[in-house]
């Protein structure tokens, strides 16, 4: 028996009041739809179709290449979307199971989806339900005296008695292919919203004696996201799952509630994460690294034993035992080799710092190569941009760049070379040399007396 997956994700998500299609909203490193697809992945589906409509181009960009996209031009309801998705699956065998999921239930777990799809030989299919005190907005699960599921009634179509039902439809179904297709052929748009509801399939099948088995789940796993406050709850829940997984593996967190780690990030056991840290994208934190408090790290790797605090690190490589911050900004292409230091109010871009090199205070290093053990004084700027092109600064090993040096690129500073504080360096500096560019200091004796006299004269005038 093969499993096929159809995910319905064509709706606009009106209640989000957002330009972004609802299912494309990011949650802890994946889109809402990405979480649904990930939960279904362990089923090893023979084929996966995602039904898109509103904002299809934006959503398509976020999908893996092996997913087939079917377009629902007009959103006539979940039943109509399911028809389109199932038609795009291609051939299915009668005993195959089609799993239909909604793209807006990101908290689904793989184990729940697996239980759903485990349709037994004598069953037509299964659906997932859950109980909550206030199921407003959800379709209600109507059972007969024997407890079998008879039908799903949408909130707006419920009788006052049905509104009292606390068991709601999660919107996830696993039904045998032939029965599913036949039942979908029979649905109509005769309801409060004038839409084709996939949920009508349940009553159609029950009418033929093909009852669906209900898998009752925890409501946190199946909540549908229709608004920003529900999105925030989903973020909270999924972030908690990421943090719990990491802590179980041996990552130390002072305050997981205030630690924001994407699903895509790798954190090695033995790393320590302080509050206010955001780790995003393709980021790796090695063992014994200490990150935070209050740092933002995206698409970067932090080496073993390194420390990053109160800093922003984007597209950078921080080597073993390096130190970053407080208040540093490492931009795209920054590479710190082992034991190097970037201190307070230092910005780097497309710059390599050799082993043990240091830029401890207030500097800008752009398009630069700094050799091992060199020291960059406070206030140093690589003047890399002439208004048209970017140019490179090369600094050798064991060099000493004095405070407030302007390195006007392109320029090369030799090994063990020094620059005098306050110099504007426009020519290359040889190995072992000191370059100093500074006008001589003048002194005007008694200057304060002249100033006082001028002040007094002005007062007399007024
Ligand atoms: C749906 C169910 C309801 C269930 C709830 C669970 C129906 C009729 N109702 O209601 O029983 O309790 O989910 O969260 O199915 N979509 C399309 N094309 C359409 C309409 C919707 O692809 O024409 C997609 C949406 O993008 C969304 C999903 O289907 O991802 C569910 O649609 P939504 O409008 O959110 O349904 P609910 O009103 O929440
Ligand atoms: Ca919904």
Summarize the structure.
The protein is α/β, with parallel strands linked by helices and 462 residues long. The chain has ten helices and 39 strands.
CATH classification class of the largest domain = Alpha Beta
State the domain count: 2
Bound molecules: uridine-diphosphate-N-acetylglucosamine, calcium ion
Q: Looking at CATH, which topology of the largest domain would you report?
A: Spore Coat Polysaccharide Biosynthesis Protein SpsA, Chain A
Poorly predicted ranges: none
The major sheet is characterized as: 16 strands, parallel
The helicity comes to 10-25%
The portion of residues forming beta strands comes to: 25-35%
Radius of gyration: 32 Å
Net shape: elongated
Compute the average pLDDT.
Answer: 97
CATH architecture annotation name of the largest domain: Alpha-Beta Complex
What structural class is derived from the secondary structure elements? alpha/beta
Number of discrete helical segments: 10
The CA-CA distance between the termini, in Å, is 101 Å
């Amino acid at each position: 028996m093969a499993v096929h997956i159809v995910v319905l994700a064509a709706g606009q998500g009106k209640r989000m009041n957002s330009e972004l299609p609802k299912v494309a909203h990011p949650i802890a490193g994946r889109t809402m739809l990405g979480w649904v697809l990930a939960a279904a992945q362990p089923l090893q589906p023979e084929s996966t179709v995602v039904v898109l409509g509103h904002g299809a181009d934006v959503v398509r960009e976020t999908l893996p290449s092996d997913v087939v996209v079917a377009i629902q031009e007009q959103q006539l309801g979940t039943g109509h979307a399911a028809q389109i998705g199932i038609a795009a699956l291609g051939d299915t065998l009668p005993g195959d199971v089609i799993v239909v999921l909604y793209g807006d239930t990101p908290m689904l777990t793989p184990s729940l989806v697996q239980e759903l799809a485990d349709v037994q030989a004598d069953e037509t299919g299964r659906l997932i339900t859950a109980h909550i005190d206030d199921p407003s907005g959800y379709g209600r699960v109507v059972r007969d005296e024997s407890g079998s599921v008879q039908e799903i009634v949408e909130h707006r179509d419920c009788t006052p008695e049905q509104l009292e039902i606390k068991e709601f439809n999660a919107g996830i179904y696993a039904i045998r292919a032939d029965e599913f297709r036949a039942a979908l052929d029979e649905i109509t748009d005769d309801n409060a919203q004038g839409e084709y509801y996939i949920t009508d399939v349940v009553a159609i099948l029950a009418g033929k004696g093909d009852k669906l088995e209900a898998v009752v789940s925890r409501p946190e796993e199946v909540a549908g996201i229709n608004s920003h406050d529900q999105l925030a709850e989903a973020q909270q829940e999924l972030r908690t799952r990421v943090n719990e997984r990491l802590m179980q593996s041996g990552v130390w967190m002072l305050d997981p509630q205030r630690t924001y780690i994407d699903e895509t990030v790798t954190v090695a056991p033995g790393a320590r994460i302080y509050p206010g840290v955001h780790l995003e994208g393709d980021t790796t934190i090695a063992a014994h690294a200490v990150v935070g408090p209050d740092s933002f790290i995206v698409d970067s790797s932090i080496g073993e034993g390194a420390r990053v605090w109160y800093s922003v690190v984007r597209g950078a490589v921080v080597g073993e035992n390096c130190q970053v911050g407080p208040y540093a900004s490492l931009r795209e292409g920054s590479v710190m080799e082992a034991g190097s230091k970037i201190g307070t109010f230092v910005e780097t871009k497309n710059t390599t710092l050799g082993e043990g090199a240091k830029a401890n205070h207030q500097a800008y290093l752009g398009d630069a190569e700094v050799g091992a053990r060199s020291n960059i004084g406070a206030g140093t700027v690589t003047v890399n941009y002439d208004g048209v092109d970017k140019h490179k600064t090369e600094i050798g090993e064991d060099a000493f760049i004095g405070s407030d040096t302007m390195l006007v690129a392109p320029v090369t500073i030799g090994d063990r070379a020094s620059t005098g504080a306050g110099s504007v360096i426009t020519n290359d500096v040889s190995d072992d040399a000191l370059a100093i560019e500074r006008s001589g200091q003048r002194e005007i004796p008694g200057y304060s007396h002249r100033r006082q006299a001028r002040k007094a004269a002005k007062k007399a005038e007024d």
